[in-house]
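Consider the following input, taken from an annotated entry for diguanylate cyclase (Undibacterium oligocarboniphilum).
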Amino acid sequence: MPMSMADLGSTTLQANSGFDRILAEKMETKVARFERLGIKLFSVANCFLTFGSVTGRSGLSEHSITEMEAVFSDEHPLTDTFVVIPDLLADPRDGTHKHVTGAPFIRFYASFPILGQDGSLLGCFRLLDYQPRTLDEEQHLLLSDLATAIEHELALNVICHNQLELVKQNRRLKRDSLIDPLLGTWNKVAIVRSLGIEMERCVRSDKPLSLLYLLPDQMAGMRQQHGQITSDQLLVRMVSRVRSCIRPFDALGRFGNDQLLVVLPGASRLVATAVAERIRLSIMTHPEKVESEETAVTVCIGVVSSDIFPDVDPETLISLAEKALLSAKNAGNNTVVQAMPGQPDMMI
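Applying the prediction step yields:
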């Protein structure tokens, strides 16, 4: 397979897999965890971590105890101060509330603020019980600690999200640095690196690898006659035709101004020659419109395969493909040449 971003950044992605796991956990799960802790730590009937509204969150009927407790909680605004009402029946505001004087007979209420990293109010952590009660100094400190833990969890969630965004941006920038901006193919650095990676893989799996070195025949004259923009547009269309002739996992890259390399992992010399011929015929049989006129376009291709040159490095393989390309150019336009030992200019 061709070089991928996984080959370039697998270590970074593994290091950040923890951020993925943290963000994968739903906020509802985290909220429920802290509410269970609150009920256990303070031995209360219920508690809510609210950021604005908890009514309807349980999915239960409005006549259920949990939903009535949620309604009571939501009728109290978020506050940035610690609020505790030991006995709601004695409170001027809540003493006549229907859920205090009637079912479920809520008697105790406490609310502790949850703050953001900038000190702004995000929500409140609330305790409800059916018996009047007070919070001693230790319980007050425990509630403060729990609120701090919630704030840290929220801050960590923001940090993880920001970190993942940075990782994504870094991957995009890394990818962009390897892409030719005009053609959308790999650039020279990337295609050479891809060739090296694929050669190693093919050696390990005892499979052949072939390399195509392409050069359009008319491009230099086209640039001189019609200018850079027109010739660039023509090259883009030619690259599209090349893509249509190769497999999705074959790597295509710009090696020079008009020169292209195609890495064909697993392809023998016979397969590579067939692919090269398919590319040549596809380009030859589709004249391009240049300034409203149909213009014949052809390409020369040098082919080199590891089943003929089994012990060469990537640089040597490129050099052999270039020699085959030069032989194709010397033989005339619209030609494919396979590199052979001792016969670099042999035409097929």
